[in-house]
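Hi D.,

Good news: the full-assembly prediction came through. Inputs first.
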Amino acid sequence: MSKYSIFSLLRNAISYHENWASAWRSPEPKKEYDVLIVGGGGHGLATAYYLAKEHGITNVAVLEKGWIGGGNTGRNTTIVRSNYLWDESAHLYEKSMQLWEGLSQDLNYNVMFSQRGVYNLGHNLQDMRDIQRRVNANRLNGIDGQVVMPEEIKRAIPEINIDQGCRYPILGASFQPRGGVARHDAVAWGFARGADMRGVDIIQNCEVTAIKQKNGAVTGVETTRGTINAKKIGVVVAGHCSVLAEMAGFRMPIESHPLQALVSEPIKPVINTVIMSNAVHGYISQSDKGDLVIGAGIDSYNGYGQRGSFPTIEHTVAAIVEMFPIFKRVRMNRQWGGIVDTTPDACPIIGNTPINGLYFNCGWGTGGFKATPGSGWVFAHNVATGEPHELNRAFALDRFVSGFLIDEHGAAGVAH
Amino acid sequence: MFLIECPWCGMRDETEFSCFGEAHIARPLETEKLSDEEWADYLFMRKNPKGAHREQWLHAAGCRRYFNAERDTVSYQISATYKIGEKPPGGSRK
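Then the structure:
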């Protein structure tokens, strides 16, 4: 497979860009692999990529029931940041941030990572105290962050409403300059291409229907494309992790909820950063083609339907319009939902399971996209060595038994 | 949009209701004798099925009473609602 460069671009321009090779193969599944990764989203593909690149394990298959990146990877609002309160999560998300910063070069694929900064707004005194505490914690962990006041926010984002008389006035914000957005599809495609180049088989339209076990250890999976054997299986299926855990015979502290997002018609450049408000459940940025990308909160009920309720969207749009009255008459183009796997402490579950050779990486809830490279990086280590990496040790499933929860609810906020 | 039938008030708009997760979780008796695993199972582990599910709902902006609902988590269709303490209409299913 050829390397992408200015020369390959010129070469292909001569043939009117009609002869680009496919970015990855579509092989038939083999009977047996060293490692199976169930779930071909960003996290699963990143896991396969780092298994091959960092650990030299290339006899790997990624099994995806639909098409790669068609789940939450293609449905999120693409926000990347690492300003988490607790040490455990701050270290994990900061690892991810550092990988993001070199990802396009590493993958030889432009993931369009744009560090345009992320503002997390505060609307009351307690919000501001929490923001100050979180920014201080971030700085102690070597993560950039600052507290900004309404006038500074207004200077950076002239369209924002800092009127103190409205229902949820903006009293200030935390600002992480290194935060930003990336092109979500490109992340999936880049990791897929990088993994495929190193020998990983990416098998689409292949749904896992059973997990085979013998003497407390996994031996393989049954799929819609036949039996595939492996001694190690990494499950990275986001919303469906309870379904996979039930196949394997154990329970998870997970509830799957619909999470919605929407985009407007394309408009001229108006927002050059990311603005999030946990209190009123709205976050907004502008994509390169001009659409306003808006994320809502989760629907309160469990759901696997990849769609949510209209009142949830109405609530979010009301919040956005109060923050940006200028958007009152912007029309919304598309709206969709994804299935997010929420945990009781709003932190992921990464690590070993009660069954030998079976590893789970799930529970990223509403905020998994930003963690894509870091999640794959630590999970590849966990799958390759059988032991958690220092960065994901605290995120083991048994924290719900030991009681060592990592309570990011207040800090990360609901919008994550 | 959902229309939800409150067992006390009848059909109402979904915005009047809040969902409170899995129904029929019995608090274990003699909690002081539970192991950490059993306690974790009661506190945190959930069924989270893809398909028919039984949940608690609260008619928050109405009679403010809890009730149970049987709902499909893929189609989101509610097949039945019933009062707390009543048997689920489909019989007891584990």
